[in-house]
Every structure is written in C-alpha cells, then in structure tokens.
Write a structure and sequence with these properties.
Number of strands: 0
Shape: flat
Largest sheet: none
Bound molecules: protoporphyrin IX containing FE
Distance between the termini: 14 Å
Order of helices and strands: H
Helix content: 25-40%
Structural class: mainly alpha
Length: about 50
C-alpha cells in the first residue's frame, strides 16, 4: 500500500498505520490459514506512474 507523496500525500496515513498495526495482527491471529486465492505472480499489478 502507498500513501502518495508531496503536497497530496495522504493526510490519514498516521491513522491508517495505527489501525493497520492493530487490525493486521488480529486478522492473521484469527485466520491463520488465510492465503491468496491465486499465486502471487498471477495477481495483477500496475506500477505505471511509480518511480
Ligand atoms: C490504508 C489506508 C489508506 C491508504 C492506502 C491511503 C492512500 C492515499 C493516497 C495514495 C493518497 C494520495 C492520492 C493522490 O496522490 O492524489 C491519499 C490522499 C488522502 N488521504 Fe488517504 N489513504 C488511506 C487512509 C486514509 C485515512 C484513514 C484518511 C482520513 C482519516 C485519509 C485521508 C486522505 C486525504 C484527506 C487525502 C488527500 C490529501 C491531499 O490531496 O492533500 N486517507 N490517501
């Protein structure tokens, strides 16, 4: 995940990071067998426009 950069960098990124620090460990604790439905190589990603 990215929060953008420069003057339009995400204003909520500190809130989002704090929430994710709580939510992600809890998610993986409750669903320890959670896996991607497809291999990572098959997940479509578009890096156009990034450095
Ligand atoms: C995982 C959660 C989040 C992600 C991945 C995320 C991502 C982003 C990204 C990439 C941008 C920049 C968009 C651009 O370049 O035009 C942005 C902008 C912004 N985000 Fe977030 N965001 C998240 C959560 C939040 C939260 C929780 C808030 C508010 C509490 C928030 C408020 C904003 C605002 C107000 C902007 C506009 C900033 C500006 O244009 O000056 N975001 N966000």
């Amino acid at each position: 995940m990215g929060f953008g950069h420069g003057v339009h960098a995400c204003l909520g990124q500190n809130v989002a990071r704090a929430e994710l620090k709580t939510v992600l460990p809890k998610l993986f604790q409750r669903l320890p067998n959670l896996r991607l439905a497809t291999p990572l190589e098959e997940v479509p990603m578009d890096f156009t426009g990034t450095d």
